[in-house]
Amino acid sequence: MGLFSFFSKDKKEELNKVLEKSKENFFQKLARTVVGRSKVDDELLDDLEEVLIASDVGVETTLKIIERIEGRVQKDKYLGANQLNKILKEEIVALLLDNKQEELEDFQLPESDMPYVMMVVGVNGVGKTTTIGKLAKKFKDKGYSVMLGAADTFRAAAVDQLEIWAERAGVPIITQKMGSDPGSVAYDTVASAIAKKADVVIIDTAGRLHNKAPLMKELSKIKNVVGKLIPDAPHEILLVLDGSTGQNAIEQCRQFMAATDVTALAITKLDGTAKGGVVIGISDQFQVPVKYIGVGEKIDQIQVFNRYEFIDSLFPEDW
Q: How far is CA 261 from the centre of its chain?
């Protein structure tokens, strides 16, 4: 039985399958590190450090984990290498719990008389449009009325793709012609949502490279325009990151957080990649909650992220 056994069976099985390559990649390396060793010494910890970094956990987070394990070894001089797996799992969980992130139980929104406005950001190709479509479907299935805004007016393909996802999710979408002012699209979307008493608005934004200053100015403009209609909106700025890119995802997160007020993260494309360890690094390094994870290409393959469940699925059940 896993360390945290109170999650739905279907969700746990789906996550176990998604993390299969990451688990295999990490624990094959770990097994080679531990084999033939009788104690946790400096040499073993150095090798473990290399394994964690190679598994895309990230340098900063890896050093924190190693420091925690060193503390355990100092307290108990008789810890054997065969106990390293259990210690490692416990210390990763403890590290992530230091981030005072509230665990979401489901796709739920706060009660309000006004629409809950989500602004979705991220570079092209990370799965931003797909994530918007999946969220729209999940919120609709929960009984919320949803409206999408196609504010990425720089690429015709972006609007076309979002229209396809809106149709799949069965929700309305506000669009304007190619090259229109993104702020105008955002304004019209929120105004329409207010008039129709929609529960949630999800606004797509341009996905040009994160180091382009004009893009960041556009994001600020959209944020300000939306705030004129609903003073505390957008209520959420969701940054979408591609988990299969490993450390590049961490760098994108760092760049976007420096340029705009990111309040939550969605990590996509964890299925089929061996770089799932990057979620540990992202969750640890940034004081922004990982809120959603993409676990497949289908419209229903998105989950609310839970640290307990994620770590439990990343480790073999008998560890």
A: 16
Could you list the beta-strand ranges (E) of the chain: 116-121, 146-150, 173-174, 200-204, 236-242, 264-268, 290-294, 302-304
Beta partners for residue 240, in sequence order: 266
Peptide bond into 234 cis (omega under 30): yes
Indicate the pairing of strand 116-121 with strand 264-268: unpaired
One-letter amino acid for residue 27 of the chain: F
pLDDT tens digits for the chain (319 residues)? 344 444 567 777 888 888 888 888 887 788 788 777 777 888 888 989 998 998 889 899 999 999 998 888 888 766 677 777 788 888 888 888 777 666 677 888 988 999 999 999 998 889 999 999 999 999 999 999 999 999 998 888 889 999 999 999 999 999 999 889 999 999 999 999 999 999 999 999 987 655 566 777 888 889 999 999 999 999 999 999 999 998 899 988 988 888 788 999 999 998 878 888 898 899 888 878 899 999 888 999 999 998 888 888 887 665 5
The encoded tokens of residue 119 equal 């602004």
For residue 287, give the 3-state DSSP assignment: coil
Enter the pTM of the model.
Answer: 0.89
> Can you tell me the distance from the alpha carbon of 32 to that of 24, in angstroms, rounded to the nearest whole number?
12
- How far is 230 from 252, CA to CA, in rounded Å? 29
Token pair 């720089």: residue: 154
